[in-house]
Amino acid sequence: MESKGTHVYPFTFQIPQGNFPSSFHGAHGSIIYSMKVEIHRPWHLTKAFETEFNFATYIDTNQPHLLISRWDSYSDYIPDLMKGE
Hints:
- InterPro entries: Arrestin-like_C (IPR014752), Arrestin-like_N (IPR011021), Arrestin_domain-protein (IPR050357), Ig_E-set (IPR014756).
- Belongs to the arrestin family.
- This is Arrestin domain-containing protein 3-like isoform X1.
- By secondary structure, the chain is mainly β.
- The chain has a domain of 26 residues.
- Helices cover 0% and strands 24% of the residues.
- It has no helices and four strands.
- It has a two-stranded antiparallel ribbon.
- The termini are far apart.
């Protein structure tokens, strides 16, 4: 039996391989990553804790296509609506 107080249980976990988007919170949606931990002990109620964490997608900046400068512009002709009055 453990004594009362703060106890630290080190653990590690690995995020599965995949192309996951970075965490994001916006006005019209969000991408949230969270983890849930449950503590099961004999003769005790199960305790559950959940927390969110930030995840940043790895971007290899050594890829040549990321080094190319990019720009774009758009123009359109709008006729003079007051002409002829």
